[in-house]
Amino acid sequence: MKTIVISTEFIKLQDLLKYAGLVETGGEAKELIQGGQVQVGGEVCLQRGKKIRPGDDVLFAGAHYTVGYAD
After folding, report:
1. What DSSP string describes 14-28?
2. N or C: lower Cβ tally within 10 Å for the chain?
3. Spatial distance between the Cα atoms of 21 and 71, rounded to a whole number of angstroms
4. How far is CA 26 from CA 10, 17, 70, in A?
5. Is the predicted pLDDT of residue 11 greater than 90, yes or no?
């Protein structure tokens, strides 16, 4: 599982995909999320604005990602 470090309370799902370098554009993130290719907490998530908080598990392209706070 890879950890994505943020300095805010949460990050939106589409922004997480862009911030982590998993997609190049917001449009690409939107298509993948609305196409059912992203899971949050083990369930398919179709909400691109879903708030991802530290400890949440995101599955994309066969890899798991979680969010953690910057020290």
Report:
1. HHHHHHTTS-SSHHH
2. C
3. 21
4. 17, 9, 24
5. yes
